[in-house]
Amino acid sequence: MLTLGCPDTVGIVARISGFLQDVGGWITEAAYHSDPDSGWFFTRQAVRADSVAVSLDELRARFAAEVADSLGEGTQWALTDSAAPKRVVLLVSKESHCLGDLLARAYRKELPAEIVGVVSNHRDLEDLTARFGVPFRHVPFEPGADKAPSFAMLREVVDGFAPDVVVLARFMQILPDELCRHWGERVINIHHSFLPSFIGARPYHQAYKRGVKLIGATCHYVTADLDAGPIIEQDVTRIDHGDSVADMVRQGRDIETLVLARGLRWHLEDRVLVYGSRTVVFN
Amino acid sequence: MLTLGCPDTVGIVARISGFLQDVGGWITEAAYHSDPDSGWFFTRQAVRADSVAVSLDELRARFAAEVADSLGEGTQWALTDSAAPKRVVLLVSKESHCLGDLLARAYRKELPAEIVGVVSNHRDLEDLTARFGVPFRHVPFEPGADKAPSFAMLREVVDGFAPDVVVLARFMQILPDELCRHWGERVINIHHSFLPSFIGARPYHQAYKRGVKLIGATCHYVTADLDAGPIIEQDVTRIDHGDSVADMVRQGRDIETLVLARGLRWHLEDRVLVYGSRTVVFN
Amino acid sequence: MLTLGCPDTVGIVARISGFLQDVGGWITEAAYHSDPDSGWFFTRQAVRADSVAVSLDELRARFAAEVADSLGEGTQWALTDSAAPKRVVLLVSKESHCLGDLLARAYRKELPAEIVGVVSNHRDLEDLTARFGVPFRHVPFEPGADKAPSFAMLREVVDGFAPDVVVLARFMQILPDELCRHWGERVINIHHSFLPSFIGARPYHQAYKRGVKLIGATCHYVTADLDAGPIIEQDVTRIDHGDSVADMVRQGRDIETLVLARGLRWHLEDRVLVYGSRTVVFN
Amino acid sequence: MLTLGCPDTVGIVARISGFLQDVGGWITEAAYHSDPDSGWFFTRQAVRADSVAVSLDELRARFAAEVADSLGEGTQWALTDSAAPKRVVLLVSKESHCLGDLLARAYRKELPAEIVGVVSNHRDLEDLTARFGVPFRHVPFEPGADKAPSFAMLREVVDGFAPDVVVLARFMQILPDELCRHWGERVINIHHSFLPSFIGARPYHQAYKRGVKLIGATCHYVTADLDAGPIIEQDVTRIDHGDSVADMVRQGRDIETLVLARGLRWHLEDRVLVYGSRTVVFN
Prior knowledge:
The structure is a homotetramer. Chain A is an alpha/beta fold. Helices cover 32% and strands 28% of the residues of chain A. Chain A has 2 domains: 2-79, Alpha-Beta Plaits; 86-281, Formyl transferase, N-terminal domain (Rossmann fold), CATH 3.40.50.170. In chain A, the strands form 3 sheets. In chain A, strands 7-6-5-8-9-10-11 form a 7-stranded mixed β-sheet, with helices on both faces. In chain A, strand 12 (272-275) and strand 13 (278-281) form a beta hairpin. In chain A, helix 7 (203-210) packs across helix 8. The mean pLDDT of chain A is 93. The A-C interface holds A 29, 96-97, 100-101, 104, 107-108, 110, 128, 131-132, 242, 250, 253-254, 258, 261 and C 29, 96-97, 100-101, 104, 107-108, 110, 128, 131-132, 242, 250, 253-254, 258, 261.
């Protein structure tokens, strides 16, 4: 799998496809995007592994030398083996719907990933996690206490699982800046509103009060700026005046679950490229 | 058509339906809503006109005496003849999509209303309006000039059409408080975002910058507080990273058009009851 | 909970609401529907249990005597205690998504029901069922063999659970007429297409071949006529030319899961009234 | 604009992009699709006209010689000037919604096309067409009479407008095979159901009878096989038990209008490639 973002200019596609042809690569899926505003070019190309004669390391070295090094400043690219499942750690609190859904998807082998651990500030979801044979770790956050030691322990526990991706699956603690930077672009959150509406706490209560006619959910990368990270996926569902906050919470669970599952799958399949506060999603 | 909102208590439905039975009313459509939070009760009942033996005036007098006067404080109700088409005035600027759509709907007699006039701060849409034989009035808003005389003229021109409803169909001037109060709950606006996201100017530019994956539109009653009035209807459409602001503007037009048409129809059919910042929509 | 369907005439609402007022019933949710084509009237009324002075048996006796017996021929009604959870049996084959979703919903106590047993013609889902502590029974259907003994055993096993509802959660055997009649209106199926499109086997293959741009799922009551029973709920999701049959199967799973969960919940909450080949869904 | 479909093999993208680089072409939009089932490859590439040094004729000659002629058997391609607006003829009967919408879109210059004529078997829409200054031709179809002369006249009248595209915008006559063949892949129809459900006459009546919970519309190319041509676009809207056939007809109009407008725009922008009974839509 090749993903690449670079300054746009004439002939990039020709050079990349020429290179892939040289190494015998059979392209099974190719997507391109030129962004006129930023003047940036993005591509994702899935190549049949058995069609390429050389090793992944050699492929990377040659791609760097023959293509990437002469593309413009700021070029970012990756050549990965999509057969290798990514390691996912889930951070949860008390709500089970996203956790249960992702465990079930992993159980039926729908995700190109392994859920290697579940970490929580509560013990409520330990039982559900155990039913699927996934390790569960409890990191207590005592009410009123200094959170720094808890976050330090969280970092250590999560890093112990060596994750490729950390998913905040309704984890109700705000990550400190330091942890956001440490985990970089590997953290995905599901927020239970259609961002940028209803940032912060109790979005369904906010939505009820405002009288909106649709509620939604947003899957996004986590940055230090709360609920402002690049959006991967969003969706909504219709409500009406008869729906109480409790009804909205219940219907919202289904949207949160689906939006997180879609966003996570696209991330795991290297379909999401970030630039600035926006994402390119090749799906 | 009976619409009513009152403090909730036991037996309201029995009293109303008992009254309607007494006057021989055949209910063709009935909807009820009890709001547990506010403790308020709402209903809308469509009665076959030919099934009622008495005149509308007598019906009103009897309903007041026999039912409404003994309901709780704050009770609001209306008994109207839905056969009488409502008078609609459209306020527009330069964008033709909502105007063209409503003129076409009126042309094919889809709306229980007559569009009696179109008023604009520009002359761009005079030609389109004339093609449908609807009176057009131009109220100039000179750039940089004091807007008060323009709004005074706008008020006079609009009031001259004796409208039941004033629709801001992409009218790009913010009504002053005084005019909002004067027209009361008779003003409907279409805002080109999924409120409360992207309040104010250039919402598609804001949406592009934030990188949202759905764009929307909101039909709401106008209050003195910009884009904060009670919402009648909202909808969204999916976009992706390939959509420029211009693409969003084009796709947004279709959503704006539909959302306004639906919201306006529900208002015209007395399906919308307002309480506080929320609406009950019996559709 | 009162549900009722009867020939439409003047004054039904008044009589029912008058009766409920007499027994002190506080109506928390009320929905009505008059069907002009069939001339039939439908209602569902949720009454606060603690507001009614008499027992459920007495309430039924009085409702029959004072209201229902004098309504027209064919009147059907039920007065039930919605606090009593319904007993659900799931019939499954090899696909785990609907099963896993319903087990997870039951686990988080989202459904007003208890899943009392899972019955399958395969053993594949025994492990998943066991993880949630629900009894699993295997009823073999040998390829090529006479199915009558298997269906007889299925009937016995299912009836042994004394279910209020039998759900075909991707059960890949067609129930014989006799079994449909035996279980009556208590059997709900999820079909993996937007009916009446793509009736029968391999609907996603049919959809791919036809080149449709949306795929869907349908939750319906089972009748002797395959895939023709009254529809409770349907939904669709967008696909495009890039989606293979396998992609459609994967995306279809999410729609099937949601549509079945919604349809089942509405059934469990007595929101679905059947007449002929159609349903009234008070949601 | 380059569109191309050919047997898939290694290196096609490299050859096309190499060619475009040679002539200096700046690609502003590029989409590719490999269909594993048919083993066919499709691409659409938008090139900035001012970036190409040679004339369109020379470009075609060189592309044939240097690329297309050596691609596999059955290869189809087109190089067109997307600045040239296409000529559209609309065929209508009595329903005005699609006609009015397309006239309004053309009026606000939203479509890359000119509506050069409207032809109808009735006179009902002559007035609306005239309001937009578009030529209207009436071709009578007398009830009970032989339709062959009418279709011969229709062919002559339509061909007189020299259309690039013929749109059946709720034209209620079934084109004879001969006319389908004559106009080839230039005819687009809007059918008022979610095909393949409810083929043929009165689809909303069929939908009502079946009790579906969503209604839809389908934009497709016309072939001799009724309602079986390749689908360009479809969409649906939710209905419920309260919606009569008349309500479905009204709500269906909005879906038909939108689906036709989207499908037609994609066709006009050369985004639709047909293969067999399916379409690739690069949107």
